[in-house]
Design goal:
Blueprint lengths: L7 H9 L3 H21 L11 H22 L4 H51 L1
Helix pairs in contact: 1-2, 1-3, 1-4, 2-4, 3-4
Length: 129
């Protein structure tokens, strides 16, 4: 049996945009944005078990997804429309801004760690002679 809860976040995105055509485009692009995710992640390591900033961003995304799911089931009234618009902006900014930015930050932190480790190894090697 088909569960209606699956598409509620995308329905909330559809309702958060006043223009019908732009709402449909936003809903379809929100679904297709999940397919673009492997290309927006610019990190050198693919798992997030050793990337704490990515973990935090992922949990914020999951919480926002559940908020969109709840908002999709609510009536079209004043506070729910504004919360839906804010959550829609967070949803799209996660894929287009937050994930690439965090990937670049974690890549640079990883490079700093590798370079400092190499310097420590060189210093330890020169002191042992």
């Amino acid at each position: 049996m088909y569960n209606n809860l699956d598409l509620l976040p995308f329905y909330a995105i559809l309702r958060s945009i006043p223009n019908k055509l732009l709402g449909v485009i936003a809903m379809l692009s929100a679904i297709l944005m999940l397919l673009v995710m492997p290309y927006t992640d610019l990190s050198r390591s693919r798992g997030i078990q050793f990337r704490p900033l990515s973990k935090i961003a992922f949990y914020v995304f999951i919480a926002n997804f559940f908020i969109l799911m709840v908002l999709g089931a609510k009536h079209v009234e004043s506070p729910y429309i504004e919360f839906g618009q804010i959550s829609t902006v967070i949803y799209f900014s996660h894929f287009l801004i937050i994930v690439p930015l965090i990937s670049l930050i974690e890549n640079s932190l990883m490079e700093l760690s590798v370079h400092s480790t190499d310097k420590l190894i060189k210093i330890a090697g020169s002191n042992s002679l």
